[in-house]
Amino acid sequence: MTDVTIGSASSAGPADISTAPLLETKALSRHFRVGRGFSRQMLHAVDDVDLTINRQEIVALAGESGSGKSTIARLLAGVYKPTSGEIYYQGRALSSIKSRRDLLAYRSDVPMVFQDPFSSLNPAFRVAHGISRSVKLHRGDLTGDQQKAEVERVVEAVGLTPAGDILQRYPYELSGGQRQRIGFAQALAHQPRLILADEPVSMLDVSIRIGLLNLMAELRATAGVSFLYITHDIASARYVADRLVVMYAGHIVESGPTESVLANPKHPYTDLLLGAVPDPRAPLNAGIEGDTGEPPKVIDPTPGCRFRLRCPLVVDECHHITPLRRELGPGHDAACHVAQPDTGTTAVQPA
């Protein structure tokens, strides 16, 4: 793995590094100008997001399309710069990284696996090309023979064998599942600490999704890699994630241990997502009750809960006051005026 000093605060000792979050955001926001000419309207894609990812942890970031999940991934990957707020990697603010060497080291530690396995590989080159480039760029300490051996190792690590045969194929000769595994192999070639997986199974057949989810769990166990798993599929989040973070219209509305959130959801939006999960035990004529809308485009928002127009539990306060995230159970918080805490919990977490 790359040198720890890239992500370490200068004042942090070894004990601090081992116990602090691997990556943390504080009041992270990203706004985009919309309209033409002299328009000053701003789309608030992400607003005031506090997110933590610990070492060897899989965090699922869930929500409908348009909720801001992929924008967060691109902020963490350095594709977008924050409008405000900060990202901390191993205690160091990313805004303090100025040199190309340090930026390359961060991107080596925090690579991204993209959603579309058909467009993320260059069809003009054999599979070996992309992985070899990753190794050469991020593993300059290896000799030529060692780099070749590393390319084969990461391909085998993602379950593609024999590696020599796979590496000589062109992307069109691989299935969708195999191509996505190559995406994970390219990320693994960096010796990452955290992989940003942006809906990596959404374009794959249901029959092969479970293999990719198992691969994430295996890489966490064998290589010590953490994951931010971005998904709109609550079922897959339950299968693989330690913690579940739910987003709506640029805000985190609920977060906590996955089983706690799904067994006892505190926010009406989380309830809505759970209601959309097919239940094979339900009667054939049973439909999904409630809302059929989608997250709004948040342009120059006014105070208030952004879910209020779709919420079955809306109260007057929801129209005028933006709810803050409150701890409602052990490690379980929600941003909702009407959510009720578990017995004995009173702590409050800032939004």
Task: Give a quick rundown of the structure.
The chain has helices spanning 14-19, 69-77, 100-109, 127-138, 144-157, 163-167, 176-188, 206-223, 234-240, 258-263, 268-275; strands at residues 23-33, 42-53, 58-62, 84-89, 92-93, 112-113, 194-198, 226-231, 243-248, 251-257, 326-329, 332-334. It has 351 residues and is an alpha/beta fold.
Describe this structure as you would to a colleague.
By secondary structure, this protein is an alpha/beta fold. The chain has a domain of 185 residues: Rossmann fold (3-Layer(aba) Sandwich). The protein has an eight-stranded mixed β-sheet, with helices on both faces. Strands 2-1-4-5 form a four-stranded antiparallel β-sheet, covered by helices on one side. Helix 4 packs parallel to helix 7. The longest helix is centred in the middle third of the chain and has 18 residues.
What is the element layout, followed by pairings?
Elements: H1 14-19, E1 23-33, E2 42-53, E3 58-62, H2 69-77, E4 84-89, E5 92-93, H3 100-109, E6 112-113, H4 127-138, H5 144-157, H6 163-167, H7 176-188, E7 194-198, H8 206-223, E8 226-231, H9 234-240, E9 243-248, E10 251-257, H10 258-263, H11 268-275, E11 326-329, E12 332-334
Parallel strand pairs: 3-8, 3-9, 6-7, 7-8
Antiparallel strand pairs: 1-2, 1-4, 4-5, 9-10, 10-12, 11-12
Helix pairs in contact: 4-5, 4-7, 5-7
Name the descriptors:
single chain, 351 residues, alpha/beta, Rossmann fold, eight-stranded mixed beta sheet, four-stranded antiparallel beta sheet, 11 helices, 31% helix, disordered N terminus, disordered C terminus
